């Protein structure tokens, strides 16, 4: 399995193609809920991994996450959202690799060696007109069905409500 090192939208190699992009604190007007927010989605900006700030992370709705992974054109592969089982490998793969790891965002990682701390700014920071307020949760990563959060170096189920906005990592099968 291959996985994107950065969240979708946080690096030029992983663009926000086919979705509406807003800045944190502003409304997303997309009637199909393909919404993403860029900017300071976290009020904790601790970064122990060397080159990826815990503060500025892109977060998107589940519908947008599915669109982004299916639209990703990177390394001539077919990309998709990870399963919940695949998410469990992310943290162990990244452990101790610093800036060479997956640039994950931990809910409580001020002193962790491999993750940036990025607690959410607040439930009203990602605004969507269609269904009201959307929570910015950069420490959660969408799977194909629910979001999971990295908390103290382990994955726990987060939200299954597609009204929240979480980080996106896409996966692709390795070539045989």
Structure description:
The N and C termini lie close together (11 Å). This protein has one domain. The model has no long low-confidence stretch (mean pLDDT 79). The chain is globular. By secondary structure, it is α/β, with parallel strands linked by helices.
What's the short version?
The chain contains 2 helices and 14 strands, in the order E-E-E-E-E-H-H-E-E-E-E-E-E-E-E-E.
Residue windows where pLDDT falls under 50 for at least 5 positions: none
- Molecular shape: globular
Compressed to H and E, one letter per element, the order equals EEEEEHHEEEEEEEEE
Number of strands: 14
The percent range for strand residues is 25-35%
Strand order of the largest sheet: 12-11-10-13
Tell me the Rg in angstroms: 15 Å
Protein structure class:
alpha/beta
Helical run tally: 2
Integer tally of domains: 1
Distance between the termini: 11 Å
The main β sheet shows up as: 4 strands, mixed
Helix content: 10-25%
Average pLDDT score:
79
Topology:
Layout: E1 2-3, E2 20-23, E3 27-28, E4 35-38, E5 59-60, H1 62-71, H2 84-94, E6 105-106, E7 116-117, E8 126-128, E9 133-134, E10 136-142, E11 147-151, E12 154-157, E13 165-167, E14 171-172
Parallel strand pairs: 2-4, 3-8, 6-7, 10-13
Antiparallel strand pairs: 1-14, 4-5, 8-9, 10-11, 11-12
Overview features:
176 residues; alpha/beta; four-stranded mixed beta sheet; three-stranded mixed beta sheet; 12% helix; 25% strand
